[in-house]
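Protocol step 4 of 6: structure prediction from sequence.
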Amino acid sequence: MSASLLLQYLIIALAVLLSVWVVAKKQFPGSVRRLRVSLALPLLREGKPAWMRAIGLRVSPVNQVGDSACGGCDNCGPKQ
């Protein structure tokens, strides 16, 4: 197998993986969130090296509740 053919296969595999990730995020957001949590938790435990914790922070999903002070339905805004 020549190097150019191997490079072509790698680029196609990367494009397929990227498209699978996009479809999964759109069609199954809850499952993707649970997957990201299950991948991030072992990396964020105490005693892990700093580089593993940094990867865990990048993998972990963003907080959906209370991440803005808009006074929305979770009542995190100022009381009146």
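Step 5 (inspection) to follow. The chain is about 60% helix and 0% strand.
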